[in-house]
Design goal:
- By secondary structure, this protein is mainly beta.
- It contains one helix and four strands, in the order βββαβ.
- It has one domain.
């Protein structure tokens, strides 16, 4: 998490499963353009949110 961040956006996860409900693929989608509509209810602004998208580790 970035230092001094009031909020962090990690992205939207999209899971793909096979017929046995086993996860076969994961996508991290960057939907920051839609964040302002969500923040209106909280009174925060998009500049308060720092992006830190999830990354593949292995």
């Amino acid at each position: 998490m970035p230092r001094g961040a009031a909020a962090v956006y990690v992205g939207t996860l999209r899971y793909f499963c096979d017929d046995f409900n086993t996860i076969t693929r994961v996508e991290v989608m960057d939907e920051r353009k839609d964040i302002s509509s969500v923040l209106k209810a909280t009174g925060a602004s998009p500049s308060d949110v720092r992006p830190s998208l999830l990354k593949r580790v292995r």
